[in-house]
Amino acid sequence: KAKYKKNYYFTIRTDSKNISSLFREAYTIGYYHGIELIWRNFLNCLWNTGSWNEMNNLAKLTYRSLDVQGDIKGKILCCIEVFGWLYYWQGKIKLAELYTLEALKLSQEIKDEYLYYYAKQRLGRVLQGKKEFKTCQELFKESYKYFVSKNNFSRAGNSLRYIGETYSLTNKYKKAKESLDEALVLFEKTKMFSSTEVFRNADVFKNIIYTHLGALLFRERNYSKAKWYFNESLALDIKFGSRTSGEIWNNIGLGLVNEV
């Protein structure tokens, strides 16, 4: 845990150009196993440091290398964790939906329950962006039920987080707060029983929930508590050196609180 008190992403950014060059070289010479070893961690770091164009370029090489190897599970994860997520946040919803549906189809073909419900969770997120709130809530609840049954608290916590966000988007603020509070409990369980990498990710998710709770409390005019959540979330962003949208929203929230 002490290891992650350092600015994790700053360290990665200093070496990202070298890693990207090695990534491309591995693809050129057909050393696909080398790509397989690093793509998930490295592309995740590119995401969190805002290097989205580079992430997209390397993701395409990753997908091709996984296809050459016949690694269907890898292709599913690439569709879910990279293309489905990246295109969603870039506003390319049709592309995000296309790749997420591909992941859902492939996971059904190989009968992998975990990847199937993971794809459902991500499809729910895409449909949330299309304002198909009823359908996306059904997908989130299905994935939540599955992940809880498998004691996968991190994935279950994310499903609850998305449920809370959807309630907020549909003006059901009490239910939104209840879901987000419950998600925090699950992420604390994740930190108790998981590796240091998952431990760090749990804090990143907690950071996002804090931002949402701050916004809900601001709406209730509970300004002192809203300020606490915004500050705590911002502190986590600074701690990990990540560049998330939460950093922007937390500063906006603090600005609004300080105007009151």
A few lines on this structure:
With 260 residues, the chain is mostly helical. It contains twelve helices and no strands.
- Tally the helices: 12
From the helix content, strand content and strand pairing, which structural class follows? mainly alpha
Shape descriptor reads: globular
| Oligomerization status of the protein chains | single chain
Rg, Å, rounded: 19 Å
Low-confidence stretches: 1-6, 195-199
End-to-end separation in angstroms reads: 38 Å
Q: Give helix and strand order, one letter per element, not per position.
A: HHHHHHHHHHHH
Helix proportion range: over 70%
Tell me the major beta sheet: none
Q: Beta-strand percentage?
A: under 5%
The pLDDT mean sits at 86
Number of strands: 0
How would you characterize this protein structure?
With 260 residues, this protein is mainly α. It has helices spanning 8-28, 32-48, 52-69, 72-89, 93-109, 113-129, 133-149, 153-169, 173-193, 196-219, 223-240, 245-259. The protein is built from twelve helices and no strands. Helix 1 (8-28) packs antiparallel against helix 2 and helix 3 packs antiparallel against helix 4. The longest helix is centred in the last third of the chain and has 24 residues, at 196-219. The chain is globular, with a radius of gyration of 19 Å. It starts with 7 loop residues before the first helix and ends with a helix. 41% of the residues are buried. Residues 1-6 and 195-199 have low confidence and may be disordered.
